[in-house]
Specification:
Elements lengths: L2 H16 L4 E4 L3 H8 L6 H13 L8 H21 L6 H9 L8 H14 L6 H11 L7 H19 L7 E7 L6 E7 L2 E7 L9 H8 L4 H14 L8 E3 L3 H11 L1 H5 L5 H10 L6 H11 L5 H11 L4 H12 L3 H12 L7 H16 L3 H10 L4 H9 L1
Parallel strand pairs: 2-4
Antiparallel strand pairs: 1-5, 3-4
Helix pairs in contact: 1-2, 1-3, 1-4, 3-4, 4-5, 6-14, 8-9, 9-11, 11-18, 13-14, 15-16, 16-17, 18-20
Length: 396
């Protein structure tokens, strides 16, 4: 293992000693993890300084330009995380940019109003749009006793589609489990050796139009597929040990979430409604695929409302009530759901993470359109690309 890469892996594992969950996945040498576990709890400021020192050493590391660019972004993000953990104030917008290489700003009220008008035309009934949208979402909830069967059905179909285009190791498997008391709707725990455990949060009702997207996001062709491909091609095939540790609040997160959110588009296509309706019908579950697809397309501009709420809370001095009001007004969610969203926006580890979904989907969507989508997506799965590199390529 390259000396600098080894120190990078150790640095990431040490951050996890300070914040449980900072390491999203580790599939590397168990001896390195044991070494860190046996050390005294590290000092956050010292970790920040170590990240800066390693970043300064990249030029003499002997690593390829591609690997050095990846590690440069990762180490810069780690240096800012260390400073924040040491008590230094970093503005929220600057924090997001340091982690994910994107500069965020609030969305447009005019765009939100246009999305509301489109939804108003689509949704049945005569009452206020918020009431009709919330009611439609409630009618869309997958029956809890059918959730597991639906997950397995979508997973099986998507797995077959993905393996035909992006081959995976024959040993790869995904295990699904239902959990509670989490700030997210789903989570992939990559275990190494081409295995994942995907947790689905039962505290948040699962909508029929969201379930296939969640399975695609967490498994095929999302996180599980990306981890498997990078393990085979970069780690096993190339000896790139920096990809044995996946760290929260680093540029690789925006890349991972963006490609995962594009999963259904790649595996099935933009016209996914009829496909999902057929799978639900086989399970005896009613689903209007055409309407769900149309509503999803109309509501897409509202995706950034949640990022707005985080900016309001952390950069504009808004109260939680004001952030909730913004989510209710423009995001068309109930107050109860908006307040549950605050658990994610206010979690110290996850507060900036919302931007990976909002900005990642937009940036990588442009990347897909810049060439052959299947080949562009393969590069996202297989190569250690960074948001900065993708943005430069898209602008060229």
């Amino acid at each position: 293992m390259n000396d600098l890469v080894r120190e990078y892996v150790l640095l990431g594992l040490r951050f996890d000693r300070l914040v449980d969950g900072f390491v999203d996945a580790y599939t590397g040498d168990p001896a390195l993890k044991a070494q860190v576990q046996n050390e005294p709890v590290p000092d956050a400021a010292a970790l920040a300084q170590r990240a800066v020192a390693l970043r300064n050493d990249l030029g003499s590391s002997g690593l390829s330009e591609e690997r050095a660019a990846f590690l440069d972004g990762q180490l810069h993000a780690l240096s800012v995380s260390g400073r924040k953990l040491a008590g230094e104030h970093v503005g929220f917008v600057d924090e997001v940019e340091s982690y994910f290489q994107v500069r965020i700003e609030p969305g447009s009220d005019d765009d939100y109003a246009a999305a509301h008008a489109a939804l108003d035309e689509l949704l049945p009934g005569d009452g206020p749009l918020l009431d009709r949208y919330v009611a439609w979402r409630e009618r869309e909830v997958v029956p809890p006793d059918r959730l597991e069967a639906a997950v397995q059905a979508f997973s099986s179909d998507l797995r077959d589609r993905v393996r035909a285009s992006y081959p995976l190791d024959e040993r790869e498997t995904v295990e699904y489990q239902v959990v509670t008391d989490k700030p997210w709707s789903g989570f992939n725990y990559y275990l190494g050796d081409y295995r994942s455990r995907v947790a689905i949060n039962a505290d948040l009702p699962m909508r029929k139009s969201d379930l296939p997207k969640l399975v695609a996001h967490e498994s095929y062709p999302g996180h599980h597929t990306e981890h498997c491909r990078k393990e085979r091609l970069l780690v096993t095939g190339g000896g790139h040990a920096e990809h044995t540790v996946f760290l929260v609040n680093t540029p690789e997160c925006l890349m991972a979430e963006g490609l995962a959110d594009l999963g259904v588009r790649i595996a099935v296509g933009r016209e996914w409604g009829a496909w999902a309706q057929e799978i639900y019908a086989d399970l005896g579950i009613a689903f209007d695929g055409a309407l769900a697809q149309a509503v999803g397309r109309a509501a897409a501009p509202l995706n950034s409302v949640r990022q707005d709420a985080a900016i309001l809370l952390h950069d504009r001095g808004a109260t939680e009530d004001e952030a909730v009001a913004h989510l209710v007004r423009w995001g068309l969610v109930s107050e109860e759901r908006a307040r549950k969203s605050l658990a994610f926006f206010t979690d110290p580890l996850w507060r900036a993470y919302t931007s990976t979904y909002v900005e990642g989907y937009v940036l990588l969507g442009k990347w897909l359109e810049a060439g052959d989508p299947a080949e562009q997506f393969r590069r996202l799965l297989d190569e250690p690309l960074t948001p900065a590199q993708v943005r430069k390529a898209v602008a060229a």
